[in-house]
Amino acid sequence: MTDRAVAVVRAGVLTTVQDRGRHGHAHLGVPRSGALDLPAAALVNRLVGNPPDAAVLETTLNGCAIRPRCDVDVAVGGAPCPVTVDGRPVPWSAPVRVPAGAVLEVGAAVSGVRSYVAFAGGVAVEPVLGSRSTDLLSGLGPAPLTDGTVLPLGNATAARVRADVAPQPAPPRELVLQVTLGPRHDWFTDTALRTLTTRAYRVSSASNRIGLRTDGPPLERAVDGELPSEGMVLGAVQVPPDGRPVVFLADHPTTGGYPVIAVVREPDLAAAAQAAPGTPVRFVAVRRR
Amino acid sequence: MRALPVGDGALLVELGSGAEAQALHAELLQRRAAGSLSVREIVPAARTVLLDGLDDPARLAAQLTAWDIPPLSARADEVIELPVRYDGPDLADVAALWGVEEQEVGRIHAAAEFRVAFCGFAPGFGYLTGLPERYDVPRRATPRTAVPAGAVALAGPYTGVYPRSSPGGWQLIGTTDAVLWDHARVPAALLAPGARVRFVPEGP
């Protein structure tokens, strides 16, 4: 039991391997992918002495359980959750040494959606196009974890950070997303633009790594018909025919044919990743920098 | 040409036609290779080119209009040849739409020279243009739940080749054994935007 690897005891509803994503291949139809809450992933990496681009685990709502085959420093952050090692509580958002063969239990999120689990050395699955991220839209990268999956770890490169606990922003009670209008705001009525930036929406339970879907007043189009496919950016607020805005997250398609009414500022997307279904959403129009 | 700002760091450049978009895309690639353009992603599409990861989108937007962009035909690129068997299950439907005999479909298709206008839908799935407009066909009324990898298909003005098995609504006219996508290969995609392509009928 000394090889540098971890075994998955309980995979949870959806646990994936994520790093900072696959950049520079959008023109081939390859989504960026990567951790949805990048600051949280970077922080847990720092806590165990990893560089910020090391691969971590991203859980969804109900955590996961992992049995390392070697002694390893671990940190859990992102969505707050109970963390135990062989049943004993250990700190969240702090480095913890897990002995070989012990079970690290990452519990269900108390609030928020996605917890991040960093192992010293990082998850060392084979990279695809420069990234270890699981891309759920196009199927690149490792498959989502299943019970029994064994993941290799890299060699720890640095000493863990001396920190008892690292503060992290609480998941949002209300998700406030700053948006700049366009590029296709002229496809919508003035009323629709006012509706988007003044009315309340809620995070829909149909949200996933591809997009944060919303429930709320539909946005009315001023221009009918189909838009020829065009390139899509992270944070694009696309409006499908049902009129409910969808915010594109990391696994979003690289091109799309529904008009983008606005784009969410990138720093606000980490909070979007932690907004559970039902969370109120407000879109606030800001000026372009 | 119209450059629309997208968020804080991107531009969507809208052009009058697909051919103009392809010409701008080629020009952008050349400028990036020459080091005079710094951008993270250049994503061409039907009539637009998206530039994502720009330091100063407003400045580039102002400069773009002054560019002298040569038409694509002036660029001599290597042609990628894709072996094809015109044996698709929608051959008869396409022949009817085109008003020709079934065996004419492959002849007409193989006579055209294509360019990859853009990629999307799946890694390595190219939207190829090159057939005259009169050969545009609608998508199938009911999409198939599984189209096999290597299927050569038509929809609207485009020809596409499915890189892997997936659901799809395009009209299937043929099959190729070419590997369109292999992420262990460099480059992973056989067809990238801007590539010239010919379909070469196989066998007797």
TrEMBL record, chain A:
Species in which this protein is naturally found: Streptomyces jeddahensis
Domain Carboxyltransferase: 27-289
Keywords, sorted A to Z: ATP-binding, Hydrolase, Nucleotide-binding
Listed NCBIfam families: urea_amlyse_rel (TIGR00724)
Entry annotated with the keyword Ribonucleoprotein: no
Pfam entry (one): CT_A_B
Presence of the UniProt keyword Nuclease in the record: no
Molecular function GO labels: ATP binding; hydrolase activity
Chain coiled-coil ranges: none
Signal sequence, renumbered to the chain: none
Entry superkingdom: Bacteria
Identification of the protein by name: KipI antagonist
Automatic annotation (TrEMBL), chain B:
Record-linked InterPro entries: CT_C_D (IPR003833), Cyclophilin-like_dom_sf (IPR029000), PxpB (IPR010016)
Keyword Transferase in annotation: yes
Molecular function GO terms recorded: ATP binding; hydrolase activity; kinase activity
Keywords: ATP-binding, Hydrolase, Kinase, Nucleotide-binding, Transferase
Gene3D superfamilies on file: 3.30.1360.40, Cyclophilin-like
Pfam families: CT_C_D (PF02682)
Residues of the Carboxyltransferase domain: 1-191
This protein's name: Kinase A inhibitor
Organism in which the protein naturally occurs: Streptomyces jeddahensis
